[in-house]
Amino acid sequence: MAEALPVCASEALQERGLAVQWELLYCGLEERAFAVRVDGQVVAYLNRCGHVPTELDWQPNAFWDDSRQYLICAVHGALYSPRTGACLGGRCGRMGLIPVAVSERDGQVHWYPSDTLQPLPDAPASSP
Ligand code: FES
C-alpha cells in the first residue's frame, strides 16, 4: 500500500458530523477530498458529484442530508451511500463518489495516494 499521509486527528470526525477536507490532485487536477465518520468507521471520497463535477457541500464540510443517513449533494440533491459512495437517488445516475483509501490508527486518520489520487507537491510529510 502507498505511504500514509495525514488527514486529521480522530477526534475531529464525530459520528455523522461535519467532514474534514483536504486538497489533493485527482488525475493531475487540484481537487478536495472529504472524510466523515459513519457507524464508527472513517470513510473518505473525492468532493466531486457524479452528476456534474462540482463539490457537494454548500455549507462548508456539511455532507449529510437532514436524516443523517445519506451523503447529499447540495446542488441538485443527489444522495449517496456513506458506506460505499454509491448513488442511491437523484441525478447522479449510476455514478458514485470516488473513494479515497483511509485508515485510522493511534488517534490519527491518514489517506493513501493511488494512481489517480496524489498529494499536492507541498503536502505534509508522510507518517512512519
Ligand atoms: S451537481 Fe450534484 S446532483 Fe447535480
From TrEMBL:
The keyword Transmembrane does not apply. The keyword Metal-binding applies. Residues 5-111 form the Rieske domain. It comes from the Bacteria. Keywords: 2Fe-2S, Iron, Iron-sulfur, Metal-binding. SUPFAM superfamilies: ISP domain. GO terms for molecular function: 2 iron, 2 sulfur cluster binding; metal ion binding. This is Rieske 2Fe-2S domain-containing protein. It comes from Inhella gelatinilytica.
